[in-house]
Amino acid sequence: MVPDGKAASLREKPKRFVYVPYAQRQELDSMTFYVRSGAEADALLGRVTGIVRQVDPTLPATQLRSMRAQIAESLFAERLVAALSATFGLLATVLAALGLYGVMAYAVSLRTREIGIRMALGARRTTVLAMVLGDVAVLVGIGVLLGLPGGYGLGRIVQSQLFGLKALDLTTFAVATATLLLTAFVAGYLPARRATRVDPMVALRYE
After folding, report:
1. Distance CA 6, CA 82 (A)
2. Would you say 16 and 4 are in contact if contact means Cβ atoms under 8 Å apart?
3. Which has the closest alpha carbon to 207: 142, 130, 114, 124?
4. CA dist., res. 188 & res. 136, Å (int)
């Protein structure tokens, strides 16, 4: 009795296996041997080839590889997709940060006269900073509310293509949200800090 296992792909569901002696099979086109050893894989492959030739010089010994190499080959597509997804995700984060910085810088420039009037009337720098960062918080909040359901939906699609990936991973969602919040704060802090340094007299003459 043996447990269910996988044969062709890591993504397939476990199947029932029946093992029989190879001599009972009417047709035998190939066989797979597993060798357990404490030696290095490169040195072991040559020794295995020599042993096969001693048993029967006509037997071809092909596709010799270590278990680590076999696993790496099986996960090549998944790792490639994961690497591409991480790269595009990082690129999207950088573009979002640049876009948010541009929008906030432009918004602050439009409110330069308003900020100057507020500071001329006694508004503190912390108040102006909180006002600008509040606008950033509203934009990020809207983005998070729209992005979380979209991320879950895309996760359901990608879940069937990657091994061991869950559509609803709270840790991943929390890290992604925190990263976006930090990126938005950094992108909005620079124009907000610039707004707090506006000279009220210059701002009042600003058009």
Report:
1. 22
2. yes
3. 114
4. 6
Which residues pair with residue 5 across a beta bridge? 15
pLDDT in tens, 67-124: 888 888 877 877 887 788 788 878 887 787 777 777 777 777 777 777 777 777 787 8
Q: Which residue type is seen at 200?
A: P
Question: Cα–Cα distance between 126 and 195 in angstroms, integer?
Answer: 11
Amino acid at 151: G
HSE-up of residue 118 (Cα within 13 Å, Cβ side): 18
Q: In residues, how long is the chain?
A: 207
pLDDT digits (tens, 9 = 90+) for 163-179: 566 667 778 778 877 87
SS3 state of residue 121: coil
One-letter amino acid at 161 equals: Q
